[in-house]
Structures are given as C-alpha cells and as structure tokens.
Design brief:
47% helix; single chain; mainly alpha; elongated
Length: 148
C-alpha cells in the first residue's frame, strides 16, 4: 500500500483557501477572432515596457495566449506595435565596470550635480533673455516717442 507522503499534491491541495480563476479580457469582451491590426486589444495584453503579459497575469487559456502572442509578433513586424519602450529611470549609486575606482566615464563628477548645474545655467539664460526683451521693449518705446 502506498503511503500518503509519496503522493504528489496539486496547488489546490496545498492552498486550503478557495480562489477564483481570473477571467480573460477576451471572454469578457466576447472576442471571437484576435486580429493583429487591433492594436488597442493587443495593447491590453502588453506591459508598459511592451512585453507580452503571461497567461497567469492576463487570465488567458493556452490557446488564447498562443493566438495573442502570434498576433503581437505579427503586429510588431508590421510596425503597429513596438518591440520595446524606453523607460526613463535614474541610476542610483552602484559600481561601474571598473569597480567604482575612478568614478566612471564622467571623470568622477556626480551626475546629479552636473545635470542640475546645466539646468541652472539654462534657467539663468532664460532670465537673461527676459531682461534683454525688456530692454529692447524700452528702447522701442523710446524710439517711438522720439519719432512722435
């Protein structure tokens, strides 16, 4: 007689709580055919970085997931969807290729300060431009009064 220890358990046996399987967007919207030209529908199955969401997250069946993956791949090939999207992120600390000995490519300058310095100089340029515009307007007014 086989012991109970050797029996393989399913996920339902391990988790005593009842769980409801996620329903697919395709079932909710009653989509019969997944078209590669329907970018709005395919976009619902993609992450913010343009990766295809997996079955567990999307709630699709195996056949639905295959059809979606193929449609997304065709839409990417036709340039209707991007292969990847750039996400702006700031790097924090970390060690570079050289182990952080010389401070990286920028010669040891702190990236945050160099960016803020350039922003400050741009803001100062804009302020100076505003002063120049005020000066030019006052000159124009003086010329107009002399002509009159």
């Amino acid at each position: 007689m086989a012991s109970k220890k050797n029996k393989a358990r399913s996920a339902r046996d391990l988790n005593p709580r009842k769980f409801k399987k996620k329903t697919s967007v395709l079932v909710i919207d009653k989509v019969e055919y997944i078209d590669y030209k329907d970018v709005d529908l395919l976009g619902r199955f993609m992450s913010d970085r343009a990766k295809i969401k997996n079955r567990r997250v999307a709630g699709n069946t195996l056949q639905q997931q295959r059809e979606i993956a193929n449609a997304v791949k065709v839409a990417r090939e036709m340039a209707l969807l991007p292969y990847a999207k750039r996400v702006a992120s700031t790097r924090t600390g970390g060690r570079g290729r050289d182990g952080g000995r010389d401070g990286g490519r920028d010669g040891g300058r702190d990236r945050e300060t160099s960016l803020s310095d350039s922003v400050d100089s741009t803001v100062n340029d804009v302020v100076n431009d505003d002063e120049l515009i005020d000066d030019l307007e006052s000159i124009d007014e003086a010329v107009e009064t002399e002509e009159a």
